[in-house]
Structures are given as structure tokens and as C-alpha cells.
């Protein structure tokens, strides 16, 4: 009788994942699958990819709908993008800072677009408040991080850094595309943003 009790005690004291760790692991595994398969992805497929039993998912999430909602909230969250913007060296020339920012934000927008597109959130309405920022909050935080990158050049800017940041982010969101021309590279986009559409030789 003693041995089983000792084993039980040992199991209870063994280190395990915190309540948030399995949740985060499931979300991170599910996001690329949702981007690929949309809402038709099964919890069984997600569980296999995560290397867990399907029942583990339902110990963390009430149902598949809650899992999908959490994944959209995670994809929309600006946390990763803001960290990358904050890590950019502000001692670099402004074009270099903005080029790095454009690369980071394009990756963020691509991740977000893949999830929204696969789930059919055409209008981009945030699906709730499950551990994630709404779109307005996300945009506000990203613009604030961009403004910090612009702050060292405030005296040279025609408008306040906050307004320039909003314009730059807006350009990234709405960059026009044609069937014949490839997307602008981050460097080309920054050059166009900073210097306008006229070439240096134009009068």
C-alpha cells in the first residue's frame, strides 16, 4: 500500500508544464495548419502535429471554435512585431531603420493575412477578446513603435513622427500592386516613401 502512495506523491511533485504552456504550444502548432486548411482543419490533425492526444486540446479549450478564436487573436497580436521594431538600432540612418521596420511589418501582415484569409474574415473583424489585442489596439501599438524609430530625426521631418509613422504603416497596408509589376522591395518602398515619386533628375 505504501509504494503506490509514494508513486502518486512523486508524480504530483514532478515538474510539468504551467497551465499556459500547453495552450501556447497548441496555438503555435495550430496557426500554420489553419493558414493552410482554414476552419476545416481538424483537432485530430492539430493534435498529431503537436504530438499530443486530442483530448489534451479539449482540456485547454472548450471546443474547436474557442481554439480558432485564440489562434486569430494570437495572429493579430502585435507583440512579436513590436518587439522586432523595438530591437532596431536607432543609431542607423533613417532609411536603414525604416527598411528593417518594413521587413518586420510585412512578415507580421503576411501572418495575419494568411489566418484571416483562410478563415474568411474578409473584413478583418477581430473575433473576440481571447488573449489578444484588437485591430485598433494592434495598429496603435505598431504606430507608436514606428514613431520611436522616427524620433531621432524629428527635426528633419515635415510632420510629427506620429503622423509619419501612421502614413508609413498605411503604405505597407495598402501598397498598390499590378499584375505586371512585382512588389516593391522594402528598400524600394522606403526610398519612394522618403523621396517621393519623382526621380532625382526630374525638374
Strand content: under 5%
- Give the termini distance in whole angstroms: 94 Å
Helix content class: 55-70%
Radius of gyration: 22 Å
Stretches where pLDDT falls below 50 for ≥5 residues? 1-15, 122-132
Net shape: elongated
Major sheet, described briefly? none
Helix and strand succession? HHHHHHHHHH
Mean pLDDT metric: 83
Could you walk me through the main structural features you see in this protein, from its secondary elements to its overall organization?
The chain is an all-alpha fold. It contains ten helices and no strands. The N terminus is likely disordered.
Explain the layout of strands and helices.
Blueprint: H1 2-13, H2 20-37, H3 43-50, H4 54-60, H5 64-76, H6 79-86, H7 94-119, H8 135-150, H9 161-174, H10 186-195
Helix pairs in contact: 2-3, 2-5, 2-7, 5-7, 6-7, 6-8, 7-10, 8-9
Main attributes?
about 200 residues; mainly alpha; 10 helices; about 65% helix; disordered N terminus
Q: How would you sum up this structure in a few lines?
A:
The protein has ten helices and no strands. The chain is mainly alpha-helical.
